[in-house]
Task: inverse folding
């Protein structure tokens, strides 16, 4: 092994540990806005389960009818449908905040870049899974219909209450983490034999910079699940903030400025706390 490769793997170690340690989690609904968001996600989840022939019991459940046993093909169908929907909110939210910033001649405080980054990340999930299957006309029609309904509905909802929408996405991402966790369990328990030796698509290897020896389907699912957990935290946090005035704490610009201020405080003693509180 080349020294550079071993260095890269040792640096990747902590990241790998984080990816492996992702857990399912649920944020309790605390007010009526949270309940609206959670109720909407549960309704959507029911629809998605119905469309993709999915039940949340483990694949080993003996009472489960054959039609609900998840195969590799059914998982991919579910992933594609899930990701085609998941790619919408970040783009809609980013676009609406962009337009508002222009319209009102005011700053956005760093939210847009994170929202567009999320949309890009979800599209990469979709494109990765599309390397593994050729969707038929039924699937294409379903995605088309879902996109039309979800894009329209989410756009209107975001104009009315962006806070509820971020909470909604937070709950949606909780479900995504649960879904990928279950797929990983199915794979580990030998119910998805076609994926045991399958290598991740080249596009995925490049996008996540998957290290050699960790480019299998299981690793891919772990990477995607880690992304979903990140979207979960980001959107629940954005849902807690004042949508008009709070800076985005996930913005790279915000983080580097906070870092600089922290260092400056160490050197100079005192700074105006508001000086790092605003983003472009
Ligand atoms: Fe995703
Ligand atoms: Fe996501």
Result:
């Amino acid at each position: 092994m080349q020294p550079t490769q071993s260095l890269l793997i040792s640096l990747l170690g902590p990241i790998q540990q984080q990816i492996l340690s992702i857990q399912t989690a649920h944020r309790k609904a605390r007010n009526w806005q949270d309940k609206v968001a959670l109720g909407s996600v549960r309704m959507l989840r029911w629809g998605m389960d119905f469309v993709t022939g999915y039940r949340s019991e483990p694949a080993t459940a003996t009472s489960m009818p054959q039609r609900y046993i998840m195969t590799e093909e059914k998982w991919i169908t579910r992933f594609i449908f899930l990701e085609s929907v998941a790619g919408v909110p970040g783009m809609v939210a980013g676009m609406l905040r962009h337009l508002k910033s222009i319209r009102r001649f005011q700053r956005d405080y760093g939210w847009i870049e994170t929202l567009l980054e999320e949309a890009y990340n979800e599209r990469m999930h979709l494109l990765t899974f599309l390397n593994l299957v050729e969707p038929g006309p039924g699937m294409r029609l379903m995605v088309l219909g879902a996109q039309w309904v979800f894009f329209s509905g989410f756009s209107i909802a975001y104009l009315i209450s962006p806070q509820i929408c971020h909470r909604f996405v937070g709950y949606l991402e909780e479900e995504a983490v649960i879904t990928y966790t279950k797929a990983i369990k199915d794979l580990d328990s030998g119910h998805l034999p076609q994926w045991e030796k399958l290598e991740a698509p080249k596009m995925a290897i490049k996008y996540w910079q998957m290290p050699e020896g960790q480019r299998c389907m299981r690793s891919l699912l772990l990477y995607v699940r880690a992304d979903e957990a990140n979207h979960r935290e980001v959107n629940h946090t954005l849902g807690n903030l004042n949508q008009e005035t709070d800076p985005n704490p996930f913005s790279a610009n915000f983080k580097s400025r906070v870092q600089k201020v922290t260092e400056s405080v160490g050197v100079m003693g005192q700074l105006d706390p508001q000086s790092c509180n605003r983003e472009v």
Notes: The chain has one domain: 30-59+66-249. The two ends are 45 Å apart (CA to CA). Residues 138 and 241 are 40 Å apart (CA to CA). Residues 1-11, 265-280 have pLDDT under 50 and may be disordered.
